[in-house]
């Protein structure tokens, strides 16, 4: 066995050791197999908190859970395997670097795009702070208007949802005006919206296109199926192709060939220092 092969074997062994250590701490609260059924392509110990969830999500948008740098937040996802994703059975931290590296190869001149690939799922850190995975991962969709057919499990998961029977909410526009803009639409809560709020709260300088990728990459009914276009304004329409471009790397860079994270860290830390430096409030 050559020296290069031995080095690769050693790196892989270290990565697997890291995986097995982190797997002992994986947050795993109920499957949400949304990606497996997308048309195109444990015991709950926190019941009281779930029963009093509110639309403002003030518990999270105040960003008072922790203070840490972005790289530390990314690496904390060593503790998380996303159960909504049938393509990945390893910690989310590896998916972060895989996505970033795929974008880096295709878009070497867009460092902000590469950084978005790295951080796009960091909002899943909520699952490490006792938020159940069903409220963190999976696809997102607007509330307050008709649920479109492209929503995963649309036919059998909204049967007892009172909004579906409320004439104020179950029409095409519901509580919204035509072309009001997605910025004025209330989305189902998840890791997309949380990380977007963290970025805004900490005045991070990622371009608007990148913020759209972060905020709407799980909004498959919109960017992959063309639904809810009647709520979009010109800005949404201009930015949608960027979200679609990002989606290619989010979906198709997942592989069991795990990246050498320690080797990649210095480069991506430089991007973090450029766009979202220092200690952030979460």
Average pLDDT: 82
> Could you give the count of β-strands?
2
Task: Give me the Rg, rounded.
Answer: 19 Å
Distance between the termini: 46 Å
Largest pleated sheet: 2 strands, antiparallel
Helix content: 40-55%
For the biggest β-sheet, the strand order reads 1-2
What are the low-pLDDT stretches, counting only 5+ consecutive residues below 50?
A: 1-56
β-strand percent reads under 5%
Give me the secondary-structure category: mainly alpha
The number of helical elements comes to 12
The shape, in one word, is globular
Report the order of strands and helices.
Answer: HHHEHHHHHHHHHE
Furnish the topology, listing elements before pairings.
Layout: H1 3-23, H2 47-51, H3 58-61, E1 67-69, H4 70-76, H5 92-106, H6 111-119, H7 154-157, H8 191-201, H9 208-216, H10 220-223, H11 234-252, H12 261-275, E2 279-281
Explain this structure.
The protein is an all-alpha fold. Helices cover 44% and strands 2% of the residues. It is built from twelve helices and two strands, in the order αααβαααααααααβ. It has helices at 3-23, 47-51, 58-61, 70-76, 92-106, 111-119, 154-157, 191-201, 208-216, 220-223, 234-252, 261-275, and strands spanning 67-69, 279-281. It has a two-stranded antiparallel sheet. Helix 6 crosses helix 12.
Short précis:
The protein has 282 residues and is mainly alpha-helical.
Keywords:
two-stranded antiparallel sheet, single chain, mainly alpha, disordered N terminus, 282 residues
